[in-house]
Write a structure and sequence with these properties.
By secondary structure, this protein is mainly α. The protein has two helices and no strands. It has one domain.
Length: about 110
């Protein structure tokens, strides 16, 4: 009996039911626009951060180049100092040899 009553209520309501098309183009377009705005905002942030990274890179590169120039100057100075020290040692060695020869000649006489 209850089943029959249920079908009696359900069947007429289903027979009067209709299908309606609800267009969702506006929602899709608004979703596209909001997504595009969000992406453009995020892209602008990334672009600014990239610009900051590029500035930092250029700053570090300039510092590194200056450091390399100073290092090259120091290396050249150390090479010159080493060459001067070699010359001094050579002259001292020759001077000692001459002194030794003079002492030997005086001793032989």
């Amino acid at each position: 009996m209850k089943v029959l009553l249920f079908f009696m209520i359900l069947l007429p309501s289903l027979s009067f039911a209709k299908c309606y098309y609800a267009p969702c183009n506006a929602q899709v377009e608004s979703g596209k626009a909001s997504t595009q705005a969000s992406l453009e905002k995020d892209f602008a942030k990334v672009k600014e951060e990239l610009k900051l990274v590029k500035q930092n890179y250029e700053s570090y590169l300039k510092t590194l180049q200056d450091g390399n120039k100073e290092l090259d100057i120091k290396i050249a100075l150390y090479k010159q100092k080493a060459l001067n020290n070699k010359e001094i040692l050579f002259l001292l060695h020759k001077g000692i040899n001459l002194e030794e020869k003079n002492i030997n000649q005086e001793a032989n006489q």
